[in-house]
Specification:
The protein is an alpha+beta fold. 30% of the residues lie in helices and 36% in strands. Helix 1 crosses helix 2.
C-alpha cells in the first residue's frame, strides 16, 4: 500500500506529502486559476513513468552488463482536448551514455514498460519508446 496526502493551499495550489517524507507542490496554470507555483498533477504522472522506468534500467544494469555513464528520458504524453483528457499515448525517449549493448538496453526497456514499471502500468495509455546510446539513435518499439 502506498499513501500520499494532498492538501489544498489556496487558489489552485496543492501540496502533496508522500509517505517517504517529501513535499511536492502542484498548481494550475495562471489561465486555469492557479499561480503556477508547482507542476500539474498530469506532469507528475509523466515524471513518475520516466523515473520508474529509468530506475528499472539502473537497477538491472549490472546483471545485464550495462555500464551507464548517464541516463536521461524525455517523456511526452498525448491527450484529447476534451474532458476527462486521459493520456492516450506516452512517448519516451531515453538518452544514455556508456558501454551499453543496444539489444540489451532495448530488452530492458521493453521489460520495464510491459512488466515492471508500476507507474507506467497504472496508466492505460499506449507506451512507445525510442532510445539513443552514445549519440546513435535506435527505433525502440
Amino acid at each position: 500500500m502506498m499513501n500520499v496526502t494532498v492538501t489544498w493551499q489556496g487558489q489552485m495550489l496543492f501540496d502533496g506529502q508522500t509517505a517517504s517524507g517529501h513535499s511536492v507542490p502542484m498548481d494550475a496554470a495562471v489561465e486555469g486559476g492557479g499561480a503556477n507555483k508547482g507542476p500539474r498533477p498530469t506532469e507528475l504522472l509523466l515524471c513518475g513513468v520516466g523515473a520508474c522506468s529509468s530506475m528499472d534500467i539502473v537497477e538491472t544494469k549490472a546483471e545485464k552488463g550495462l555500464t551507464l555513464k548517464s541516463l536521461k528520458v524525455e517523456v511526452r504524453g498525448d491527450r484529447p482536448s476534451e474532458y476527462p483528457m486521459p493520456f492516450t499515448d506516452l512517448y519516451l525517449h531515453y538518452i544514455a551514455e556508456g558501454d551499453i549493448d543496444p539489444a540489451v538496453f532495448a530488452e530492458t526497456l521493453h521489460d520495464s514498460l510491459t512488466l515492471y514499471c508500476a507507474a507506467g502500468l497504472s496508466l492505460k495509455a499506449a507506451k512507445h519508446y525510442t532510445f539513443e546510446i552514445n549519440g546513435v539513435q535506435y527505433p525502440g518499439n
